[in-house]
Amino acid sequence: MCGVVGIFGHKESANLAYLGLYALQHRGQESAGIVSSDGERLRFVREMGHVGDIFTKNRLEHLKGSAAIGHVRYSTAGDSTLRNAQPIAVDYSGGSVAVGHNGNLVNAPELRERLEADGSIFQSTSDTEVIVHLIARSRELTLPERIADALRQVRGAYSLVFLSHDKLIAVRDPMGFRPLALGRIGDAYLISSETCAFELVEATFVRDIEPGEMVVIDKDGVRSLRPFPEAPAHRCLFEWVYFARPDSQIDGRSVHRSREHMGRRLAGEHPVPADVVIAVPDSGVAAAIGYAKESGIPYDQGLVRSHFVGRTFIEPSQQIRHFGVKLKLSPVHEVLRGQRVVVVDDSIVRGTTSRKIVSMIRGAGAREVHMRISSPPTVGPCRYGIDTPTREELIASNHDLSDIQKFIGADSLGYLSLDGLYESVEGAALPAAGGGPQGFCDACFSGRYPIAAEKPARLRQLRLISA
User: Torsion angle of alpha carbons 325, 328, 332, 338, nearest 10°?
Assistant: First the structure.
C-alpha cells in the first residue's frame, strides 16, 4: 500500500503536497518524496523515513513551483531501499516526467524481462519503473497518449499521479482497486489517495476519480479521458476494513460508518455475555463502538496505543513487526481486571499479534477474553498492493476456527461473515446465487482473484550500492 497526492495551480504546491502526505502517512512509512514543477524543470526530494522527518523547511523551499506530486511508500514489489523511493523522475525524448504509484502490477516481471532484452536499463526493482520505460518507448505524440499506451500493456492495480513541466495527470486502473479522489482549493486542483488529505489543507472534495479514468489538469483546466476498455470494477474491500483512515470517504462511502456497521453486524452474528467491549486501536475502534451499541455492553478503553510507534502491519520486517507489538499497546488494568472482555480487531493475519494481545489482556486480570474480528478470515494473499503474507503464513488458510481460537488463547472467537461485510460497506447482502456483489475485490477473503497473476519471477538484485 502507498499514498499519492498531486497539486496543480497553487503557489505553495510543495507545502500542500507535504501536508497531504502527512495525512496519508498511515499508507506507507518506509520512504516519502515530492517532485515539483516551476513550469520549466522538475525538482525532487526523496528519502527513507517519515514525512515529518524528511521535509525540512530548506528542502521544501528547494521544491519551487505551482505544481507538485508526492508519494509515501511501503513495498509490495521491490526492495525497501532509496532506489525504490518515489515519485520516480526521469528525462526522456519527450521531456521530463515524474510518477507516483499506489498498487501492484501482476505482469511487471514479464514486462521487465522483455524491456531488458530490448536494451532498457533499470535503476530500481520497483514495478513502477516498468511504466516509465513503456512511456519513454511509446510512439504516441502527447504525454497523456504515451501514458495511456503504456498502461494498456500492464495488468494489475494502479492509482497513479504524473507530473510534467506543465501538466498533472491522474489515472485509476479500469477495475478501480485503489482509491483516488479529486479536490479543489481556490483555483487549484488536488489529487489524493484519500479524502482525509483534503480536510487537512481545507480543500473541497469534488469527486472520486472513476475506475478507468484519466484526469488531465493543465492551464486550460480539468478534462476527463477514458482511454481504456471498460472492465468490471473491483474496489478493494480491505480499504474499508483496515487501510483507509476512518475520516475518509471512498467511492461515496464513509469509512467510519462502514466500520461501525461491521461491528453492529458482528455483534448480531457472534453475541456473547460480557462486561466490557474494547478495541485494538486504532483500526478496531469504530467496529468496537458498533459492537457495543448493538450488544448493549459498555465500551471502554482497555488498550492504549503509543502514537510514537508506526502501524505494525505495514512495517517491512517481521522482526520489527514482532517487536513493535510490545511497544505499541499497553493494557489499562482498571478497565480489564476481573472483567469478561470482548476485544474487537479488524483482522487476524498470522495470528501472532492476536495471541500477544489476548495474553496481554489476561495478564491485566481479565476473567474472560472473547476475540471478535470485523472481517472474514484472511485466506489468500493480496496481489494488488497490500503486503499480506504468503498463503502458508496466513493462519486462516490452513487452520479452522477452533484451531485459531486455541492458538491465540481466546475463550471464544468470531469473524464477521462475508455477507455481513458487504452489507456493512454497501448496504446490500450477497446475491442468492453466491459470489460477491459486483464492484468489489474480496480475493483475500474468498480466494477469487479478478486478475490472474503471472508466473512467479524473482527480480535480480541490484549490485550497485549508493554511497
Answer: -10
Element (H, E) at 255: helix 255-269
Q: Cα separation of 30 and 82, whole Å? A: 9
Residue with cell 517481521: 318
Structural contact between residues 369 and 411, judged by C-beta atoms closer than 8 angstroms? yes
Length of the chain: 467
119-141: average pLDDT: 94
Task: Tell me how far apart the alpha carbons of residues 352 and 34 are, in angstroms, rounded to a whole number.
Answer: 36
Q: Which pTM was predicted?
A: 0.90
Give DSSP secondary structure letters for 348-361: -SSSHHHHHHHHHH
| Active-site entry in 2, 236, 441, 444 | 2
pLDDT digits (tens, 9 = 90+) for 178-210: 999 999 999 999 999 999 999 999 999 999 999
All three cell numbers of 144: 497523456
Q: Please answer whether residues 357 and 328 qualify as being in contact, where contact means their C-beta atoms are separated by less than 8 angstroms.
A: no
C-alpha span between 147 and 136 (Å, rounded): 9
Q: How confident is the model at residue 78 (pLDDT cuts 50, 70, 90)?
A: low
Decide if 300 contacts 285 (C-beta within 8 A): no
Catalytic residue list contains 2: yes
Question: Residue 299: phi, psi to the nearest 5?
Answer: -95, 140
Q: DSSP label at 241?
A: I
Indicate the DSSP class of residue 67: E
C-alpha closest to that of 144 among 70, 214, 62, 220: 214
Instruction: Give the tens place of pLDDT for each residue, 365-404.
Output: 999 999 999 999 999 998 888 777 788 889 999 999 999 9
